Amino acid sequence: MVHSDSYPPLLDHYGTLLSRGSSQIDEPRTRVTMEECQLPLIDLCGLTSADETVRRACADAICRASSEWGFFQVVNHGISHRLVEKMRSEQVKLFQAPFKTKAKSGLLNNSYRWGNPRATCPDQFSWSEAFHVPLTKVSDEACYGEFTSLRNVMTCLAAAMSELSRLLARILTENLGHGKQAMIDNICDETTCFLRLNHYPACPISPEMTGLVPHTDSDFLTILCQDQVGGLQLMKDSKWVTVKPNKDALIVNIGDLFQAWSNDVYKSVEHKVVTNATTDRYSIAYFLCPYYDSLIESFVKPSIYRRFTFREYRDQVQEDVRKTGYKVGLPRFLLEGSEENTRLYTPSITATS
Questions:
Q1: What is the pTM of this model?
Q2: Residues 341, 262, 221, 250, CA torsion sign
């Protein structure tokens, strides 16, 4: 690992955590071989086809992947490769800034995060840094300081990801029936949606270190733009599998709210990011969220979840993490008589929204 003033104190903090156990920080690193998977790949050109059969087949593929995988890839998604490359260049410059600048200068709504300073054991620690920016602040000039060229690129990317997320969400809600496709536009707003810029520094110290700890996302859906370094893993058929990067594709995953809304038709799948021994990794994630007081209620009946608001859900997640270090998530909101379903869930450490 290259040491410079741009890096957050990941090594110091992780070393302190390791000193509480039997692991040694100078153990040789060995690569852990994981099965590699090809996520369902969906060409969104099908949605604008003049042929109704083609449009329907494309929408069906989105819904099927959301049910069977909880993850899928999209190409011809309308976000230009040039815009993504410009954003990546600006993102690298941002994370190369001195640590004190990132942490103390109020950049991007003072949203800088690194690792997990509150972690009490290595399993709760993420070898990464990020800016988790509310959409309401993306265009705010005051948030950018010396990084003036970042603002225009980030504003364009946020708008494009927002449009794409709503398109996909409408398809998923329409598939649930009952004329609910318009609801997603009524309850989702930029006041609660986020854009997250991630940086995973090279980490040669441990093959067990995660860049982002296992978690599910507490939103409707997430759109991820990642580089070609790789490292994303998801839980499939009770085992971790590695997602092979595709330079032309964006990754979409279902969040907890869509799982509850669909009464488990769509799956919010546990995922994580593993570190790379020699190479930094960058990614950008867009989180589609509702108003905090929006009511989350299953479309499909009989429901296995009780009604709850997004605010209530977030508060419960944060309380669980404060008390135990782990996110429980949806099992907290199962209706009486559905308790047997809790055994299907493994508590995960929260890592995002």
A1: 0.91
A2: positive
